[in-house]
Amino acid sequence: MDLEGMAKISILLVGLWLLVNWSGLLDAKNMKYKNPKHSTDTRVEDLVSRMTLEEKIGQMLQVERKYVSADLLKKYFIGAVLSEGGSIPAPQASAETWIDMVNEFQKGALSTRLGIPMFYGIDAVHGHNTVHNATIFPHNIGLGATRDPELVKRIGAATALEVRATGIQYVYSPCIAVCRDPRWGRCYESFSEDPELVQAMTEIIPGLQGDIPNDSPKGVPFITGKEKVIGCAKHYVGDGGTINGIDEHNTVIDRDGLMKIHMPGYFSSISKGVATIMASYSSWNGVKMHAHHDLITGFLKNTLHFKGFVISDFEGLDRITSPPRANITYSIEAGVSAGIDMFMVPKHYTEFIDVLTMLVKNKHIPMSRIDDAVGRILWVKLMMGIFENPFADYSLVKYLGIQEHRNLAREAVRKSMVLLKNGESADKPLLPLPKKSPKILVAGSHADNLGYQCGGWTIEWQGVSGNNLLKGTTILTAVKNTVDPETTVVYKENPDVEFVKSNGFSYAIVIVGEHPYAEMYGDSMNLTIPEPGPKIITNVCGAIKCVVIIISGRPVVIEPYVGLIDALVAAWLPGSEGQGVADVLYGGYGFTGKLPRTWFKTVDQLPMNVGDPHYDPLFPFGFGLSTKPSKALYSS
Ligand SMILES: *[C@@H]1O[C@H](CO)[C@@H](O)[C@H](O)[C@H]1NC(C)=O
Ligand SMILES: *[C@@H]1O[C@H](CO)[C@@H](O)[C@H](O)[C@H]1NC(C)=O
Ligand SMILES: *[C@@H]1O[C@H](CO)[C@@H](O)[C@H](O)[C@H]1NC(C)=O
């Protein structure tokens, strides 16, 4: 080639280079998705139109933190990360450590071609329950007993703030299951057996996400900014109706029953703008909910006009087949085709990417389905402002576990206490207790154990035992804080009869119940309080005047002991602020809680819910004695 030829080629190359870069510059200016002046719909449409299949499929994934890094997020265009139960960046990690981890993942997401931010999800189901020093609120069953939706909304707002204090933007809450059988290990995650009460308690959603504007179109999710989080109504649908309460099992009920019992919570959640809905592991009449096109696409999206995204449960795809992962191609095709948009695939995410890519390329799944899924996810991300503010700063750290939240939890505890028996007759009540007595006994496995008091989904998935890992007040400490300084409080976990009789106690407070559990590990066909609980009740209440406080995630077998017990309180799983229990025991406040569930006599009556023809409870749904605050109010 001669010089002239080379010059021509150079000019051509320079020209080409200019053209390419100029159009790139123009393109950047026209990137509508980056410009908040455009409507969210316009931004979603623009962004989806720019995405490759690979980028779209990555966006549909949520992976567990321990199996991913910033580089892997970038490599696979992954849209979201999560902590499974108990998955933490470091033992007793501080809020700053959590923020640093989330921001590190965010850097990976933002370094992709299109720079789509990720969000991070966690099970904050009774406060920010995985995080060291967070406020632990009562589990949902206790909140149901308060009958106070406005309180529950405030708890949602406090939880959102503590979650954001750690840089996290998404919570798998609320569980709006309508537990119809207390043998189910997740019954405490349910506000009530009554669909209407569950509907009322969806007020937690505007607490978590912010209030939806009055003119907001039907089904459109709404999250109001950097102190709010993405919420998730779960588990769609019928999770609380499985046979014998077996976790993840089959809910056998006709369509009318499903609509009347298990669906109303979703009507309310959607009208309050819930951003996401999680599919249930369970089946409806033998069809897995993760593969239920009729109920997910047909009913939820088309009939109810839900515009947020549907997320799978943790490894929910795997469990479409039995045994799990028997045919992952089938599972992915069934789940995506049913209408699930985002998939919690904690570990095997490259397999998901490969299989879904093949299914789209083979036209087993149309691109329109993928675009629908991605569009919904991006809608939520854009609407919550994460494109504009992808990184968490430390400004909210100060809200983790603050006194205001602990006071709120304490208020919730005292309002959730249900007084089931109070002395032999109404004119001889035992409660409220006198603050001044020479000597009293506190007994029981649950008197001085914050872990037991909080239940499952606390620090660890299955909960913990003891006081070392949690910040809060045990009921024993609360009693000591409350009685007159001249009252001697003797604590003995498991006293024998001789000890109880021979010490001149004025009365005893016995605190026993279930040990922590979560999900299937909590399924129980006998619903008995584990020993030595019953033995402690018998030893103490057989000898002296006693108040028994039951710490449990549900009604348990208590009928055989009621005759021995002078006063009986259902305290559910109250969480970190045990002072709320002493508040009502000693008359600082009156008892107001009402049973959110039917209390059975024997397990062979189950399932038995209010309105059933064979209804013959020990204590009916809605039962709860009240007391008046005593004159000797103490300051809180
Ligand atoms: C948790 O609270 C305890 C007691 O107030 C405090 O000593 C500790 O530093 C806190 N931990 C973190 C990580 O902030
Ligand atoms: C797995 O599922 C796919 C898609 O439904 C099907 O074509 C294939 O035959 C199944 N494989 C086995 C081993 O059952
Ligand atoms: C009751 O069921 C639980 C859970 O299934 C079991 O661990 C326990 O041993 C049973 N208790 C009795 C008294 O049968």
TrEMBL record:
Keywords: Glycosidase, Hydrolase, Signal
Signal peptide: 1-28
Pfam families for the chain: Glyco_hydro_3 (PF00933), Glyco_hydro_3_C (PF01915)
Domain of life assignment: Eukaryota
Domain named Glycoside hydrolase family 3 N-terminal: residues: 52-378
A GO molecular-function annotation: beta-glucosidase activity
Coiled coil: none
InterPro entries: Cellulose_Degrad_GH3, GH, Glyco_hydro_3_C, Glyco_hydro_3_C_sf, Glyco_hydro_3_N, Glyco_hydro_3_N_sf
Gene Ontology annotations of biological process type: glucan catabolic process
The name this protein goes by in its record: Beta-glucosidase BoGH3B isoform A
Organism per entry: Glycine soja (Wild soybean)
